Amino acid sequence: MPKVVSIEQMRAIERDAEALGLPGPALMENAGRAVADVIRARYDPSEIRHVLVLVGPGNNGGDGLVAARHLHDDGFRVVVYLVNRAEAEDAKIFLLQQRNVQFIRMADDLGLSRLDSVLDQTDLVLDAVLGTGRARPITDGLADVLDRVSQHVPRPVVVALDLPTGVNADTGDADSHTLAADLTITLGHAKRGLLLGAAIDLVGDLIVADIGIPDVVSATIPIDYADDALLRPLLPARPASSHKGSFGRVVAVAGSALYTGAPVLAALGAERIGAGLVTLACPATVRASLAAHTVETTFLPLPDEGTGELGPAAIEPLVSALGTYSAILIGPGIGRSAATRVFLDQLLARLHGSATPVVIDADALTILSEWPRWWERLPPRSVLTPHPGEMARLTGTAADGDRIARTMTVAQSWGAVVVAKGAHTVIATPSGHGAVLPFALPALATAGTGDVLAGAILGLLGQGLQTDNAALVGAYVHGLAGTLLQRTFGPAGGLAADLARYLPDALCAVRGCRGGEAPVSR
Fold first, then answer.
1. Which of 271, 343, 378, 493 has its Cα between 20 and 30 A from that of 508?
2. DSSP secondary structure code for residue 480 in this structure
């Protein structure tokens, strides 16, 4: 099962693997084979024929030499460009020489004229220059080589082996000469730096390649890199004998006169994820406008004295009805008026000892952030879903730096499950476990997608999932739905309502139904 690891954790994993009988040379052979397998599966040799492998001096370069051999044997036409790597007594180079693979040494390529000539014929560059051990800025000849590839017209496809040369595998910082990749094939586990900062825009698609490391040596790593295999056992069952009552009654406390879209999108998220019955608890004067946009949702109109805002008058009728619901969502579109602030304060006080799981999102998070020691007011089974701005307000610090570490820390100090939304959403639990999602999707950077996510988590809580699993499954299925949205509409133009329609297809893809494909529901 892939994990999210630091450089030191990965080195410890490799040491432990060696102690179990998997030495470094075997890992290198596995790594090179795995990289070649991914490239062969993704790129047809009849279309991507000529491969240039940039080989550096360390283990990353060694992995690249093994990959070059397998790519040659798989039918690609391979040229190896040695960057500061000696040829003497290297069995990996000898095996390539036996196959008559062409070698070029950077030291012999004055003016990089031979590199230019090869690039004119190259379809794909495999970047195997520097790996996790890079510590110094990139300068001189290596900088010139990387820049020459980046600036070549037409630019070949770039595949990074383990990480793009120049990216810091712990922090995500990147050298100015970093060669941006279209695809990064990282080895064994996802390096945390690939999921942070500047690296997110340099990694391209990210694939974790299995290189044969036994799961036992990474079992104590607390952060998973989420995939279908991790999620599939967590999905709620859908027995043939079930009925709507089998899948929970959930309520979203949402909406105001100014914000009527958010509650509808949250309800859609809960419904499309499979909740049995979804209720919107909203100001009475906006119920009609909400009902015009959703026919499956039921309503709990709350007194609002004609203001279109939830205030103290709504507390008693709401609390008296909450006992019939298996999960609660608070926040989408409620606004931040003075009356709503009082309402939220009183509602959380009434829920403080409740065993009912509560999702807190959007405006409710912003209001919370204004209260001293606000986390002490949370119900015991809370899920918080902040976007970067809300996270900054909740923590009182800027939203930059290592968001993985920050999310893991605050989940424990707040005693709540935290879903830190954004590129590579982070889910963290009070127990110190977490997961990072594989999705970095500009298609999701549009209003309302967070409301759909909050509703999806609500719907899964209603179906009986625990808070940590509901948050993980909801965020992952939401991200996979975003992938389908982007595949159809591109990186811009898909709407949050469109996203909700893809949730069933995403669920089906994780389950493996319909032949494992994810057809589009329109």
1. 493
2. H
Cα-Cα-Cα-Cα torsion 265, 296, 503, 225, nearest 10 degrees, comes to: 70
Question: What's the CA gap between 105 and 107, in Å, rounded?
Answer: 5
- Residue % of the chain over a pLDDT of 90: 90
Tracing tokens 């809580």 back to the chain, one arrives at: 461
For the chain, the farthest-separated pair of C-alpha atoms sits apart, in whole angstroms, at 85
What are the tokens at 14? 């490799």
How many domains is the chain built from? 2
Q: What are phi and psi of 165, to 5 degrees?
A: -55, 125
**Distance of alpha carbon 214 from alpha carbon 446, whole angstroms:** 40
Helix (H, G, I), strand (E, B) or coil at 102: strand
The CATH number linked to 39 is 3.40.50.10260
User: Using CA atoms, how far apart are residues 422 and 444, in angstroms rounded to an integer?
Assistant: 9
168 Rama class: left (phi>0) / alpha (psi -120 to 50) / beta: beta
Confirm whether 231 is domain-assigned: no
We report the CATH number of the domain holding residue 284 as: 3.40.1190.20
Angstrom distance (rounded) from CA 333 to CA 330: 9
Residues 105 and 160 in one domain: yes
Residues 464-479 have a mean pLDDT of 98
Q: Give dist(CA 67, CA 447) in Å, integer.
A: 43
Nearest Cα neighbor of 471 from 413, 517, 430 is 430
Phi-psi region of 432 (alpha: psi -120 to 50; beta: other; left: phi over 0): left
Comparing C-alpha atoms, which of 109, 141, 108, 145 is closest to residue 125?
145
Are the C-beta atoms of residues 515 and 466 closer than 8 Å to each other? no
Are 181 and 279 in a shared domain? no
Long-range CB pairs of 108-117, under 8 A, 24+ apart, other chains included = 112/144, 112/145, 112/148, 115/81, 115/145, 115/148, 116/148, 116/152
Residue among 344, 362, 128 at smallest CA distance from 263:
362
Query: Is 249 within a domain?
Result: yes
508 half-sphere exposure, CB direction, 13 A CA radius: 16
Per the DSSP assignment, residues forming a β-bridge with 417 are 383
Percent over 70 (pLDDT), the chain:
97
Closest CA to 367 of 402, 395, 342: 342
Does residue 244 contact residue 463 with C-beta atoms inside 8 Å? Answer: no
Range of the domain at 372: 245-510
With residue 435 as reference, give the H or E element that holds it: strand 434-436
Token pair 């005693």: residue: 415
Question: Which residues on adjacent β-strands are paired with residue 350?
Answer: none
Q: Which two tokens stand for residue 447?
A: 């209003």
Q: What is the pTM of this model?
A: 0.95
CA distances from 23 to 15, 130, 182, 208, 369 (A): 8, 21, 31, 20, 51
Task: Please name the amino acid found at residue 132.
Answer: T
Q: Is 362 contained in some domain?
A: yes
Question: Are residues 164 and 210 part of one domain?
Answer: yes
Residue-wise pLDDT tens digits, 178-198: 999 999 999 999 999 999 999
